[in-house]
Amino acid sequence: MANSKKPGGLREMLESMYSVIALLFILVACVELCDAAAAVDVYRLIQYDMSGSPFGSRFAALNHHAASLHFPPGVDLSRTVLIIPLRELNITFVREYINQKNPLGGLLVLLPEVLSFKTGGNKQVHEKEKMKNLLAELERLLVHSNIPYPVYFAFENDEIDTVLADIKKNDLMGQPATATTGGYKFVIPTTEPKKVASPTMTNIQGWLSGLKTDGDANQLPTIAIVASYDTFGAAPALSVGSNSNGSGIVALLEIARLFSLLYSNPKTRGRYNLLFGLTSGGPYNYNGTQKWLRSFDQRLRESIDYAICLNSIGSWDNELWIHVSKPPENAYIKQIFEGLSNVAEELDLKVGLKHKKINISNPRVAWEHEQFSRLRVTAATLSELSVTPELLESTGGLFDTRQYVNETAIVRGVKLVAESLARHIYGHQGKNIQIFADESSLAVNPAYIRSWLDVLSQTPRVAPFLSKDDPFVMALKKELAGHVDEVNVQHETLEGIFTFYDSTSARLNIYQVASVTFDLLLLLVLGSYLIVLFSFLVITTRGLDDLISLFRRPPSRKLKTA
C-alpha cells in the first residue's frame, strides 16, 4: 500500500519543484526592472513637417541605457540615451553630432529648474543673457533639424541629479551602462506620434462702439488694436511665450480695460470705434490674422483708420520700434509715428521707425501688420525687436519665460499706446495732456498686468494643440467680453505648409538595472539553494534511497521482461 502511494507523492513533489523553478526564472527575468530609481515629467521636441519635409524629433518611445557626456571615445551610442544638463552643453558637439547623422538612442536635455513655469516661479536666473543665448541657439538647431531619434527636455531636481551623478561616475570609471555591465535604463512606454488632424485656430474679436450723434448717417472710423496669442517652440508643452507674445496680449487687455472706462460714459465716449483682435496662427505667417481680416465685410475694412499690432514689448529698456510696410512719407504712417513719438518723448522713451516693403508674391509674412497691408489697410507693429525675425523664431521658445519679462516695460508700453490712441481719438495731438495719468482713476493698473502675465507664463498655447473650447481660449474671451460691447469668436483650420504631430509630453521611468553577470550569479545561487532544499525535503520525508533513485538510470525494457 505504501509503495503504491510513493510514486504519486514523488510526482507531486516534482511538480512542486518545477513550479518553483518556473517561478525562479520569472523572477530572474524581472530583476532588471525591479529597482525604479526615479520617474520624471519630460517634454518632447516638436515634430512637424514643412512643405512635406520632416523636422524635429521623429520618434517618441524610449527603452535604452543612459550615458553622460563623459562616455569613452569610440563607444557605440546607437542604443544609448545621452543625458546633457544645459549648463554643460557644448553646442558645437551637438550640432556636429546631428549634422553628421551619428546614431543615438535618444537625447535628454536637462533645463535649470528656475526656468520651469510649474516650480520656477519668479526665481532669479543666474547668467541670464548667457543662458538665454545658449537656449536660443539650441532651439534653433533642434527645430530646423530632422532628428531620427527621441529628444526630450526635463527640469533638474534632486532625483535626476542623483541619477546623473551616478551615471557620470560610472562613465568616468570606464564602465558605461550596457546590458552586460548594467547601469540606468530610461524607459518611456508610449505609442508613436500621429498627425494632428485639421488643427484649429481661434480668433477672438472685441468691439467697443464709438459715440454716434443723431442724424449722422456716416459710419464712424475704426482703430484696431491687435495681438497674436499663440506660441511656437522646441517643446510645445513648455512654450509659454511670456514675452512673445504674452506681453502683447496683456497690453491689449489693459488697453481694452482703460478705454472701456472712458467709453462707459457718453460724455467721454470717443467718436471712433475700437476693434480688438486676439489672433491665432501667428508663428505660421499670421495665418489666423489673414483669415480674420478676410472675414470682414468691405465696409468695415474701409472704415479702419489704422491698426496697431503689439508684439514682444516685455523686456525692452528704453526704445521700441514701429515696423511699417508703407513708406515713412505716407501721411497715415507719419501720423502714427508722430503720435507715438510725442508721447514717448514726454515719457522719456525712444521710438524708432523701421520700413520693410512687402512682396505680395512671397507668402512669407514676418510681421502681423503685413497682413493688413496686403489688404491695403494702414497698420504698424510696435515691438522691442529691431530686426525682422526669421520664420518660427521669436515666437515663445524655451527661454521666453516669466524670468525674462519686466512688467514695468509692459506698463510703459501700455501707457505709450493708450495715450497716443486717446490723443488721436479726442483730437489732442501734440498737446501735453495725460489722459491716463498715474494715481488717477484711469491709471494703468500694474496689478492687472502682473496677474495676467503670470497666467500666460504658465500656459503653453501652441495653436495645433489648443481645442476650440480650450479653457485658456475661453478665459481670454470672457476677459475681453468684460471690457467691450460685443465679442465674437471665429474658428478656422490651420492651412498651409505645416503638418504637426501629437505626443508632446510623457513620463520618463528611470530604472537601475543589474548586469547580466549578476543575473547569472543570482540564478546559480538560487538554483543551488533550491536543489539543496529539495534534497533535504526528500531525505527527511522519503529517505536517502528515494533521493538516489531519482538519479538512477531506469531499467531497460529487456531487463524488465527478463
CATH superfamily of the largest domain: Zn peptidases
Anisotropy-based shape: elongated
Overall domain count: 3
Biggest sheet, spatial arrangement of strands: 15-14-16-13-11-12-10-17
Major sheet:
8 strands, mixed
Global Rg: 34 Å
Q: What is the distance, rounded to the nearest whole angstrom, between the alpha carbons of the first and last residues?
A: 25 Å
Description of the structure:
The chain has 562 residues and is α/β, with parallel strands linked by helices. It folds into 3 domains: 35-195 and 504-513; 200-493, Aminopeptidase (3-Layer(aba) Sandwich), CATH 3.40.630.10; 520-550. The chain is built from 15 helices and 19 strands. The strands form 3 sheets. The protein has an 8-stranded mixed β-sheet with strand order 15-14-16-13-11-12-10-17, sandwiched between helices. A 7-stranded mixed β-barrel has the order 1-8-6-5-4-9-19. A 4-stranded mixed β-sheet has the order 7-3-2-18, with no helix packed on it. A hairpin with a 2-residue loop joins strand 2 and strand 3. Helix 13 (516-541) packs across helix 14 (544-551). The model is unreliable at 1-6 and 28-34 (pLDDT under 50).
Short description:
The protein is built from 15 helices and 19 strands. The N terminus is likely disordered.
